Amino acid sequence: MKRKHKILMTMTAILFLLLSAIPADTKGMEETAVWDITWKGTGEEPFFRSSVVMEVDLKGSCTKDDIMIFVNRQKWEGEWDYEQTLKMTFYEEGNYEIHLIHRNGYEETRKITIELSNPTIPKVDSGSYTAGKWTNQDILLEAHGSKAVSKISHYEYKTGNNEWRSMKYGRLELKRDMDDLVLIRAVSNAGRYSEIQKIWCRLWKKKPQLFKITCSERSLNGWYGKIPEFTYESEQAEGPLVHVYAQLTQLQTGQIQTETDQIPQIKKDGKYQLKIWTKDEAGNRSENSFHTVCFLDTKKPEILIRSQNEFQKVSRYQKVKIRIKDENLQKNAVKVITSGKQMKGFVQKGEYYESEVVFDRNGKHNLLVQVEDMAGNASISEKKVFKIDMKKPEIYISGIKNNKSYKTFVNVKLHVKDENLDEKQTRIYLNGKRWIPDKIKDDGYYVLRVEALDLAGNQNVVTKKFTINKKGVHIYFLQKILAGKNISEKSFRPGFQVVSLEPVQVTEFLMNGQKVSYEWEKDKVYIKQPITENGNYRISLNAVDANGERVSSKKITFFYDTKKPVIQMSGLNEKSECDYGTIVAVSLENKKDYWTKVKLDEKEIKNLTNKISFKKLEPGIHVLKLQAKDAAGNVTNKRIKFAVTKILPHPVKQMVEKDQKKETKVKDKREKSMLGLWIAAGMAGVISAAWLFYRKYSK
């Protein structure tokens, strides 16, 4: 019995496999796994500064058995709280890569960093600056070297009671006066702070004031009866310590003595110069300094007078240099008697005292110098006379005005006036060529230049620009041959050419009575945007010249047409066929369009009209080649291939169609029957084989 049972089970399995092989319609639906991931911890994904819990909520029909989870490429074998909820806790510091894979192929990867320790303390470079020392140069601090599990996000700094501020690219440039500690720390991507690095920065740019200087002796004309003693009063303020620097120079020998926080003492007679200034420990020096000299002299002063244009009788400008040689000149005893202008007081240059007198007014001028030194020695110079002419020649031009346009000839007249005129140096140019004043008749642009020079070197140049434009302004339509015609040109921009010798301004570009935008191209004016719509157009241009005279172009009309002729055909069915005897006709939709070429089977058709009909075409394939054109020049080419079939009597035609339908049904039925027979034969063969197998093993 057991053996028979096994045989029956085997036969049942074979039948099941055969039946399952028969085609059947199946419908299935793949469901993509969808889950939500949330994080609980201090920080924001992907950086956390505490342990973190990852919660995974499955959605839809997805269960935990459909999911595989890998943490840092190691398969996670943890437990789910529920069938569709998972909580994973990460306690240790480090970087984690969580990879979730659904059995249908959907996957997702999340990367997080858990940082439980603070960043290392940063290193701070101050460049050439030494911490704790005063400087007057900007201090550049650069923070670097901190390390953190989540890497360093940025560095922050703080001074005094101020808030922490971010350091751009880890750099901090100090430019303002300060004497304070700068606190610097690193901030990781997870939001943790390092220990604070401190650096004492002392920056001071404010210059110190010069202390008050006093002298124990009174000066008499730069001489002292006793050795003078100079002292100062210290006025220390905030910031770095200020020191006094004093420099005493022996002018005859050049010996220099410099002291700090005290003033050198003069010990014997001679010429001395004392210079005092202040400087703080940051290197800032006072803007002002104290200067004084002491001297003795017994020689008579020497006076030297030299003029700039010494050999010129008449000058437009005269500068005279006065030099007085005396080691101990009494400046307040120097008198310069002149009608000129003394530009500056006497200044010592080497062994001379120098000054300058300038004569810059018309007329005759005198100069006399009187000097006296500390010992009472006096000198008087020789009297000098100078003649000054600073006035430019006066040029008068009549008959024209600058930048003026004239519609008739002009008659130019000139007159040059000057007391010391050099007639040989007076020149007249017209358009760059020497010219004698006369009438100017021809149209054109003109530049008149008159140059005049006098004996003192004063030059005057007068230039006048003018135009003679007897022809006026002319406006021409650029597309002359298109006026009054049909136009099919693409991107068509009608325009005008403006011909004028002087500037012209367009006031209106009108198209069908409306103003349109335009643009200049040299002397041509076009509408800015090409015409795109078909229709009748009328354009004109209005302008005004430099004299305010208005001018208008002619009104130009044309028809703009870019639509190609439309060819219509009748007599054919959807398959481009017709029965024998059917009239086939072609025509043009627009009556104004015309045929330029019509060929039927390569035979050209003559005497063309708007509608052309073809009667009694022979059965077979025919080719019709058509070409049409409109008044704007748009061309349409078309090739039509069609067939003319033979006519069958109506009863015969019905019989043929009936037989064709019947034959189609029989053929479909025969194919279905054959398929059934093949399936039945297959099943019979299988049953026979099974019966033989049963009889063989049942004995």
TrEMBL record:
Keyword Transmembrane helix: yes
Organism domain of life: Bacteria
Bilayer-crossing regions: 675-694
Domain Ig-like: 430-468
Alphabetized UniProt keyword annotations: Membrane, Signal, Transmembrane, Transmembrane helix
Signal peptide from the UniProt entry: 1-26
InterPro entries reported in the protein's UniProt record: Ig-like_bact, Ig-like_fold
One Pfam family linked to the record: Big_3_2
The protein, known as: Ig-like domain repeat protein
Lineage: Bacteria, Bacillati, Bacillota, Clostridia, Lachnospirales
